[in-house]
UniProtKB/TrEMBL annotation:
The keyword RNA-binding applies. Belongs to the bacterial ribosomal protein bL25 family. CTC subfamily. GO terms for biological process: translation. Residues 105-194 form the Large ribosomal subunit protein bL25 beta domain. Residues 8-96 form the Large ribosomal subunit protein bL25 L25 domain. GO terms for molecular function: 5S rRNA binding; structural constituent of ribosome. This is Large ribosomal subunit protein bL25. Residues 203-224 have a biased composition (Acidic residues). Residues 203-231 are annotated as: Disordered. It comes from SAR86 cluster bacterium. Part of the 50S ribosomal subunit; part of the 5S rRNA/L5/L18/L25 subcomplex. Contacts the 5S rRNA. Binds to the 5S rRNA independently of L5 and L18. One of its GO terms (cellular component) is cytosolic large ribosomal subunit.
Length: 231
């Protein structure tokens, strides 16, 4: 998929405010949105609800350059915020950030976990995979924006984790977390034993400790008996 496959038709919006937005959604089947950034004045627009609902069904919509057509002009943007209805499958508002070819942008892109079924910790050690994060905030030029970032899981063993610094980021792409220091090198995924297996290990360890303690007591009792017999 190319960087400009997402195209939304929009109309300028002059009637603003909460009341106007409610009327827009109820009567016209559109949603209010705004385009801002790149040193230009914000542009209030409306977008057909059905169009943006169809677009957001595709995961790539959130990590691609989007073309918004307004009054015959094309705006290159990325989605920055999406307000959804808390109970209904509806979008209420969208924020778009203008992009410039020579200015880096900060975008969250999805993580794709590869070869989980081939993971050493899962196949050979009875572990399961825990995902700590499912998307990563990155910085890059618009032309270098990846659709997703792969996390390779095949070599992961039980008790091991993959951190942000372990990810193979594409050329020209940096992690915003890591740019803030090593303290932000968060875990991405880990292979752990299922809870039942952990509980069995804990019970087994407690049993062994109990047996060792009992054996120690028996030895002490035997020594006491010997001392008494000598008396």
């Amino acid at each position: 998929m190319s960087k400009n496959d997402f195209i939304l038709e929009a109309s300028p919006r002059t009637d603003v405010g909460k009341g106007a937005s409610r009327r827009l959604r109820r009567l016209a089947g559109d949603i209010p949105a705004i385009i801002y950034g790149a040193g230009k004045e914000p542009t209030a627009i409306t977008i057909p609800h059905k169009d943006i609902m169809k677009a957001v069904e595709n995961e790539a919509f959130f990590s691609h350059i989007i073309t918004v057509k307004v009054d015959g002009k094309d705006e290159s943007v990325v989605i920055k915020a999406l307000q959804r209805h808390p109970a209904k499958p509806r979008i209420l508002h969208a924020d778009f950030l203008r992009v410039s070819a020579d200015q880096a942008i900060a975008v969250k892109v999805p993580l794709h976990f590869v070869n989980e079924d081939q993971c050493v910790g899962v196949k050979l050690e009875g572990g399961i995979i825990n995902h700590m994060i499912n998307e990563l905030e990155i910085s890059c030029l618009p032309g270098n924006l990846p659709e997703y970032i792969e996390v390779f899981m095949a070599e992961l063993k039980v008790g091991e984790s993959i951190h942000i610094s372990d990810l193979a980021l594409p050329e020209g792409v940096t992690s915003i977390d890591l740019a803030h220091g090593e303290d932000n090198n968060h875990p991405v995924a880990a292979c752990v034993l299922p809870r039942a297996a952990l509980e069995e290990e804990e019970i087994g360890a407690e049993a062994v400790e109990g047996e060792e303690a009992a054996e120690g007591d028996d030895s002490a009792d035997s020594a006491d008996d010997g001392d008494k017999a000598g008396e």
